[in-house]
Write a structure and sequence with these properties.
mainly alpha, 3-stranded antiparallel sheet, 54% helix, 212 residues
Length: 212
């Protein structure tokens, strides 16, 4: 699973309708250009590709008063919404997601109901436990990595990653169950994680061209 699809679908959905520069600006505001492949070229490519796949609907709008080609605005289609939520649920559940995919999932976590998020995260914990058990069938952490030579460091890394991932996930579950954040259907004031039109982005890279 690629983080860029989830990031772009989620960013467009937050705006309702957005052009490529807005999506890029939002993702840079999140720092996604540092922890994922959400670079300008990949963002614009993903927008065009998902429009071809029917996940986004493209609208050509009038050029700016400064001139230049018409901009394209995108909105998420019904098919795109289904894809977005499928990717989001997968990102939160699967134990071996890459960090960029898991990070993208956490970024949109409040788009789901609180109870469902807790259930998805508990499934992640169970999967981590199962994965750790599979590793420790061949490697006992108590014996230390040296028991398998330097190759044991690989197993040690896997077990450590599973333990750290479980601890972090359980902490997140605890905070959510204690009432942290405003989730879908709760009627609270949602956290605004996007920039308003014209709002300056302090984290903008300025790299690449505005391709619409």
């Amino acid at each position: 699973m690629s983080a860029i699809r989830l990031l772009v679908l989620g960013a467009v959905r937050q705006h309702g309708r957005a052009h490529g520069y807005q999506v890029r600006n939002d993702l840079e505001f999140w720092g996604a250009h540092e922890w994922s492949s959400a670079k300008p070229g990949s963002i614009y490519h993903a927008l065009k590709q998902m429009a071809k796949q029917g996940l986004l609907r493209a609208y050509e709008i009038a050029p700016s008063t400064a001139g230049g080609p018409p901009r394209t605005e995108y909105e998420v289609t019904e098919k795109g919404v289904e894809e977005y939520f499928a990717l989001l649920r997968e990102a939160l559940t699967t134990y071996d997601q890459k960090m960029d995919v898991l990070s993208a999932g956490i970024g949109f976590i409040v788009d789901l109901p609180r109870a469902e998020v807790v259930e998805l995260l508990r499934r992640r914990v169970a999967a981590l436990d199962e994965w750790r058990s599979a590793v420790t069938e061949y490697y006992t952490p108590e014996g230390g990595p040296e028991q398998l030579g330097h190759i044991g460091e690989i197993m040690h890394l896997w077990v450590h990653s599973a333990d750290a991932g479980k601890e972090w996930t359980l902490g997140l579950i605890e905070r959510i169950e204690a009432g942290a954040y405003s989730f879908a259907g709760e009627g609270g004031e949602p956290f605004v994680g996007v920039l308003a039109e014209g709002q300056e982005n302090p984290y903008a890279t300025g790299d690449g061209e505005d391709a619409g």
